[in-house]
Amino acid sequence: MTTIQKKLNIALIDSCSYTQQGFSQIISHTHGKGVSVNTFGFATLSELNESEVNFDIIIYDPMQNSNIIVDINRDVTRIKQWQPQSRVFIFSTAVGIIKQPLVDGMFSKQTALNDLSSLWEMIINKAANREGYLMVNVTIAHTPSLNLSNSELSVLRGYYANLRTKQIASCMGCDVKRVYYYKKTAIDKIEAMANSPFYNSARRFLN
């Protein structure tokens, strides 16, 4: 008796080639029998848009781009316009820092490999069976979320890139006072986590 395999196309948008290779290996070893998985790596959203492949799952890291401006929901909306049949997941170190965007799930890059493999096996098999919406949000255990807004995150990325406040304001299309406001609210959120494991690394980032 011939077994009919269900084929899934999975795209990973990440400018780090090592992440692409590693995650492709995880996916190739986690799907169940009767499921054929093809993985495709892209460095940018534009490269995804140029692809003629229809993807069932798209994995995306919004931090892996050269632009300091972060607008995750806008990016996800564009992906859904290009690939309306796909499920979109965030796989990033920003998980646990950013507000929940309009995606099917989020995974932190700090998640243990065994946990990541088990979760992706479940997601791939569910996608292969064309089952309904699956919301998955995986961060580091006992780590509270900062819930930084896109603007707060963009300002921090600007300072991290050694841009001056006026340059950040120009990139964001706002005045300098607004940049200082977002900087303050971001710092206040980080300071509120003084007793969390995330606090020390966040302070090093700001310094």
Task: Describe it.
The chain is α/β, with parallel strands linked by helices and 207 residues long. It folds into two domains: 6-138, Rossmann fold; 150-206. Helices cover 43% and strands 16% of the residues. It contains eight helices and six strands. The chain has helices at residues 17-28, 45-50, 72-82, 113-128, 150-160, 165-172, 176-191, 198-206, and strands at residues 6-13, 35-42, 57-60, 87-92, 105-108, 136-138. A six-stranded parallel beta sheet has the order 2-1-3-4-5-6, sandwiched between helices. α4 links the parallel β5 (105-108) and β6. α5 (150-160) packs across α6 and α5 (150-160) crosses α7 (176-191). It is elongated, with a radius of gyration of 18 Å. Mean pLDDT is 79; it is low at 138-142.
What is the topology?
Elements: E1 6-13, H1 17-28, E2 35-42, H2 45-50, E3 57-60, H3 72-82, E4 87-92, E5 105-108, H4 113-128, E6 136-138, H5 150-160, H6 165-172, H7 176-191, H8 198-206
Parallel strand pairs: 1-2, 1-3, 3-4, 4-5, 5-6
Helix pairs in contact: 5-6, 5-7, 6-7
* Main CATH class of the largest domain: Alpha Beta
Strand content bin? 15-25%
Q: Biggest sheet, in brief?
A: 6 strands, parallel
Q: In percent, how helical is the residue content?
A: 40-55%
CATH topology assignment of the largest domain: Rossmann fold
Q: Number of helical runs? A: 8
Query: What is the chain-wise order of helices and strands?
Result: EHEHEHEEHEHHHH
Mean pLDDT, as a whole number? 79
CATH superfamily of the largest domain: Response regulator
How many strand units?
6
Alpha-carbon distance between the termini? 64 Å
Radius of gyration of CA atoms, rounded to a whole number: 18 Å
Provide the domain count.
2
Overall body shape: elongated
Identify the strand order in the major beta sheet: 2-1-3-4-5-6
